[in-house]
Amino acid sequence: MLTALSISLDELAVGFSIGLVGVPVALTIILVALQAFIFTFFGLTFGSKLKRYLGEWSEKLAGIILGLLGLWILIDASVQLAHR
């Protein structure tokens, strides 16, 4: 239940962001559904294969990657803001 809620909130944030940029609603729905399908498919496929090699470390690795991605976005936004 918590996983479904977190995914729904994530998709809501993506939908708002794309909508604010001015992308048409139909295209927004298609893009959100497509990215959710692709990343869910890859996550399930590679997650089951990597589990035997990484085990508990796979969760930590995912957290590190997401943290680095967030840091990258923050730095990129700061650099763009500084250039204005």
Compile the SSE list and pairings.
Elements: H1 2-21, H2 25-54, H3 57-83
Helix pairs in contact: 1-2
**Strand fraction:** under 5%
Helix content: over 70%
Principal-axis shape equals flat
Number of H- or I-type helical stretches: 3
What sequence of helices (H) and strands (E) makes up the elements? HHH
SS-based class: mainly alpha
Major sheet summary line: none
Please give the domain count. 1
Q: Any idea what the radius of gyration is?
A: 16 Å
Low-confidence stretches: none
According to DSSP, the number of beta strands is 0
Q: Report the end-to-end length measured between terminal Cα atoms.
A: 43 Å
Please state the average pLDDT score: 81
Tell me about this structure.
The protein has one domain. It has helices at residues 2-21, 25-54, 57-83. It has 84 residues and is mainly alpha-helical. The longest helix has 30 residues, at 25-54. The chain starts with a helix and ends with a helix. Helix 1 crosses helix 2 (25-54). It is 92% helix and 0% strand.
Offer a few descriptive terms.
about 90% helix; mainly alpha; 3 helices; about 0% strand
Concise description?
This protein is mainly alpha-helical and 84 residues long. The chain has helices at residues 2-21, 25-54, 57-83.
